[in-house]
Known about the structure:
The complex is a heterodimer.
Chain A: H1 7-16, E1 49-50, E2 64-70, E3 76-81, E4 87-91, H2 102-112, E5 123-128, E6 138-143, E7 151-155, E8 158-162, E9 166-171, E10 184-188, E11 199-203, E12 209-214, E13 233-238, E14 244-249, E15 253-259, E16 266-271, E17 282-287, E18 299-300, E19 304-305, H3 314-318, E20 325-329, E21 333-338, E22 350-355, E23 368-375, E24 378-379, E25 384-387, E26 396-397, E27 401-407, E28 411-416, E29 421-427
Parallel strand pairs in A: 1-26
Antiparallel strand pairs in A: 2-29, 3-4, 4-5, 5-6, 7-8, 8-9, 9-10, 11-12, 12-13, 13-14, 15-16, 16-17, 17-20, 18-19, 21-22, 22-23, 23-24, 23-25, 27-28, 28-29
Chain B: H1 15-41, H2 44-74, H3 81-104, H4 114-139
Helix pairs in contact in B: 1-2, 1-4, 2-3, 3-4
Amino acid sequence: MRTPALLPLAALATLLSACGSESDPVRYGPNPTLPEQQRGLLPSMKIASPAGWGDLRPTVPEGYSITAIATDLKIPRQTIVLPNGDILVAEGRGGGAPKLTPKDIVAGPLKAKGNTAVESGNRLTLLRDANGDGTYELRTVFAENLNAPYGLALVDGRLYVANQDALVRFDYRDGQTRASGPPVTVTPLPSAINHHWTKALAASPDGRFLYVGIGSNSNITERGMAAEADRAVIWQIDAATGAHKTFATGLRNPTALAVQPGSGQLWAVVNERDELGPNLVPDYLTSIREGGFYGWPYSYWGKNVDPRVRPQDPQKVAAAIVPDYSLGSHVASLGLAFSMPAMGARFADGVFVGEHGSWNRIPPSGYRVIFVPFRGGRPAGDPIDFVSGFRGEDGNTRGRPVGVTVDPRGALIVADDLSNTIWRIAPTRAAS
Amino acid sequence: MNDSIQPVGGGGIHPVHAFLLAASVPLFLGGLFSDLAYSSSYEIQWTNFASWLIAGALVFAGLALAWAFIDLLRADRAWRGRPLVYFFLLLAAWILGFVNALVHAKDAWAKMPEALILSLIVSLLILGAAWLGFATLRRGDAR
């Protein structure tokens, strides 16, 4: 506390907010500890306090180096590495859900302090490293006037972009640095209100289908049940016709999708609900079963009923699937990518997950990129920090990771939407 | 400061004070009825209404409270009797009303049943405060 005058206020805030004791609960893996639900008179809040990087850099494991390959972007979110090694960056911020209650008006500006003040780019930026030395000397706008583009996928010469309101498509030839024309709309996507606006995207291995993650329109139905039609779901979209079917439901905010190499299995990272305590509800990484229901809004982590939802639905709760792997509560995972042997032996088999970081947890969680090791095609073992130091020991936050992409040449590309930077992490020695 | 600016007869609350007090009553009551509607229908718009009605009530009741406090400070024999009870009823209504506003900021059904119970208590308190406030005005015995 800066001044003694604030002390009583701080004491009151501690009293009012749900004060969680850190009694070493299991936070990661298939069986996280699920404590009692708790919520004080005020929700626990710890908003990131942004600061510049200066000479500091995020921390990476021994034997790896990190460089900023592009800065001063306009809210980079997700990236894709094209066959020729070029990187496309989707930039922008969507949302803008109307403020319905006094709470929205008070909490909105508070939470916004933890994010960049830069205007939404609504564009795709192309980065090129022609000679493979790790310096991306070319930077150019590939396409603009998009609407909060987020998910990216390339299938057979077609570049798919998931805007916040529609799935669109560009034709793409290798080496192209500028879209040859405006995009073609494949299908509109649910976009009314758009509380959770990010539209994650992945393509099936044969390229026939596109999967789009569509987040809920509320934390926990506080905008009414009617607002949740076609929300908290993953759509399967026929790439040729644009026809869609609902592939899986009950996924509060599926912010990143990835198809597992080899098996072709669809995986997702999902952000779970807030305001139930510091260690509820775990965000998770899970394989997605076709037709599966994952709980939201009626229950979490399988059949744990959320009493905040009315009317309740015991039948849905009974059908809820337990996710595969807990990433910890409130970490806000927004990026997911399967690794490759080119990333080095320690990080060859598993997934990278970009964690944007919490607001509803004291102490904060997330603010890092983790590696979840896999064995036999399933998560096995605790996550390992791969990129950290986004939240400094001084309490300031210098970056917030979003999308992660593995470059087959042996590098992880991380989009940071607070410092508006693209980071590249690569082994310093040739991968052994 | 100067007794000559007091209204003739001296007692009673100022018309603007009366307006502020009166305005908070239907707003708190509206919050209560909206809570009842939400608790029986699960229709989320009712609880949105309740949140705004309570916020509005807190503005008017807060100003009335400030006025009542200043009246207490200015009156020579005020720290006893009816004006004091009026002030403390209004203070209790405002504090519990504020707690109620925070409870209403909980998402969806998380606010129930506390929101409904608090709305009921606050409505009774504001009715009591308004009764005493206007009884003072009518009988002119504030001093």
